[in-house]
Structure formats: C-alpha cells, structure tokens
Design goal:
The chain is an alpha/beta fold. The protein has 2 domains: about 150 residues, Alpha-Beta Complex (Quinone Oxidoreductase, Chain A, domain 1); about 140 residues, Rossmann fold, CATH 3.40.50. The chain is about 30% helix and about 30% strand. The chain is built from 11 helices and 15 strands. Strands 3, 4, 5, 6, 7, 14 and 15 form a 7-stranded mixed β-sheet that branches. Strand 12, helix 8 and strand 13 form a beta-alpha-beta unit. The chain is globular, with a radius of gyration of 20 Å. The relative contact order is 0.16. The model has no long low-confidence stretch (mean pLDDT about 95). Keywords: NADP, Oxidoreductase. This is NAD(P)H-quinone oxidoreductase. InterPro entries: ADH-like_N, ER, GroES-like_sf, NAD(P)-bd_dom_sf, Quinone_OxRdtase_PIG3. It comes from Parasulfitobacter algicola.
C-alpha cells in the first residue's frame, strides 16, 4: 500500500469551487479504531457548512470533509476485536470521508446490510444515526402519534418518513414541489404538503396537531412549528438552514406543556455514537436487510467532482442522498 492517498480538501472558506483534489498521507488507526478503504462517501449539508467556514471539525478530527462512507476494513488498531480485515462496513466518521482512506472508531462501523451495494450503504450512517437518535431515542415517537418532518425529499426526510411509517406513526411532511410530495407519499407519508401552496400549520392542526416535529429549517419555521404542535407536543431541532435566531413567545410553551429540544451529531462523544450504533443494529439493520426500508439515492459523482456534488446539493433539486465514488 502506498503512503499517500487522493483526497478532496477545503482550500479556503467559500462556495463549492474551493473544494480541490490533493494528496494526503494515509492515516493510521489508533486504539479502538479501524482504517477503511473507501468505496463511496456520502455528501451532507454539514459538509457544505464546513466548506463555507461555518462548521469547524472537532479538534481531533480530520480537516477533510465527509461524515459517512462505505468500504472495507484495511487495517485494525489495538483493542478492536469485533472487526476483521476485509469486512465490508459503512461508518459514521468524525471527518475525512472525501478521501481514499479514513480512520474511525470501530464502534461507529456497521455491517453493510444484506443484499445492499456499497453506494447505497454509504447513504446510511449520517442520516440513520441522526434520525434514530432524534426521532426515537430523544423524541420518543410512538405508534399512533402524528409526526411532522420538514424537507421530506432530503436524505433526512426520506429516512424519517420510512422509519416513522414502519413504526406506526401518522406521517406528515413538507416538500417544495408536487413531484417531491409524491415521492414522500410513495415512501409512506400520509400527508405531503407542498409548502409553496399550502400552510403546513393549518393542514396539521386540522388533523389535531403534531405530537412530534423534526425540523432542520429554523428561522421563521420555529414559531410556526410551535403553533403546529398539539398540547404536550415535542419539537426537535437538528439544523438551521434559515437561521437560529427568532422571536418566540414562550407563554405558549408553558401553557400547552410543549418541549423544545435538539442535537447535533458530530460533537457527541464516541460512546454516545456507539450507543446509537447499537440501537440501529438492533432495531433498524434487520429492516434494511429485509428491504422493508431503503436508502433513497439521488446521484453519484466522482471524488474529483465533489464541487459539482455540493452545487447540486445546494440547488435543492435532489431527492434523497448524493454520493461520491471514491474507488
């Protein structure tokens, strides 16, 4: 094995054009880590935020973008006992996925589900870790509850719709076109709301209000989400595409016993992420292996065309996940 690898680095904060191909040393796994030879890497909104200079990686993480990948285990660090060389895995990464090789904690790796290709598997970790930990572990979604996820045609949205539907929730979602709304309905959404034509607050309140809302829009959606919640409802915030600051009347929260919470995945401890991986392996991976749920792929770009992948993601024309073909 050579000592260097191809990678895509962020040359300076800016638009997609600041992503450039480079050569980097191949990282070496430390205690509890594995080295993965990447076949495909997922492209996610946090990658674009990091590229723009708005989402710094943790101090111990690679400066290269990329939070999920699929490939095979190439080397094993001390203390790893449950993976062997050559295992095909998909993995949540602290960074560094836009490269031919990456190191990550072995506990953040999951087996590629049965009958699933590596490009599909690369679509799983970031979205499934995020949705499961927020909607089910933090949000406590139960069968029969009314669940609203914004951005239903995104990677997060297509994942949340399928999981919530499978576990018996009544699923509402928003999307920006009639075609995207139809995709959401095909995946299991009971109500798909074109936010350009309809007011999601009115639609969901006509059905009794949402017990749980998963939102990544923020900004003006925050007070509207509060209005859309049923009494004792929960709002979970995982991103702020339209900004984190807004005026909000907390009297409604007190009087109607609402809960507002949220999380980001990347800064959480290795142990917390390992716990999420265990939950996914137990509750979700059997569904993926049986084909009961599936990742929705939009498009594939070569590693050297990462800038085009980012431009496509930021156009919001995609449905589902975008991946980079690395090797």
């Amino acid at each position: 094995m050579t000592k260097t690898m191809r990678a895509v680095e962020i040359t300076k904060p800016g638009g997609p054009e600041v992503l450039a191909l480079c050569d980097r040393p191949i990282p070496q796994p430390g205690y509890g880590q594995v080295l993965i030879k990447i076949a495909y890497a997922g492209v996610n909104r946090p990658d674009a935020l990091q590229r723009a200079g708005l989402y710094a990686p943790p101090p111990t993480a690679s400066d290269l973008p990329g939070l999920e990948a699929a490939g095979r285990v190439e080397a094993i660090g001390p203390g790893v006992t449950d993976l062997t060389l050559g295992d095909q895995v998909c993995a949540l990464l602290p960074g560094g996925g836009y490269a031919e090789y990456v190191v990550t904690p072995a506990a953040h790796c999951l087996p590629v589900p049965d009958n699933m290709s590596l490009d599909q598997a690369a679509c799983l970790p970031e979205t499934y870790f995020t949705v499961w930990s927020n909607v089910f572990m933090r949000g406590g979604l139960k069968a029969g509850e009314r669940f609203l996820v914004h951005g239903g045609s995104s990677g997060i949205g297509t994942t949340a719709i399928q999981l919530a539907d499978h576990f018996g929730a009544c699923v509402f979602t928003t999307a920006g076109s009639d075609d995207k709304c139809q995709v959401c309905r095909d995946l299991g959404a009971d109500f798909a709301i074109n936010y350009r034509d309809q007011d999601f607050v009115q639609v969901i309140n006509n059905e009794g209000g949402a017990d749980l809302i998963l939102d990544m829009v923020g900004g003006p959606y925050l007070p509207r989400n509060v209005k859309a919640l049923a009494d004792d409802g929960r709002l979970i915030q995982i991103a702020f595409l339209q900004g984190p600051q807004v005026e909000l009347n907390f009297a409604q929260i007190m009087m109607r016993r609402l809960t507002i919470t949220g999380s980001t995945l990347r800064p959480q401890s290795d142990l917390a992420k390992a716990n999420i991986a265990e939950e996914l392996l137990k509750h979700v991976w059997p569904l993926l292996s049986k084909g009961s749920i599936r990742p929705i792929m939009d498009s594939e770009f070569p590693l050297e065309n990462a800038a085009d992948a980012h431009a496509h993601m930021e156009s919001s024309k995609h449905i589902g996940k975008i991946v980079l073909k690395v090797s």
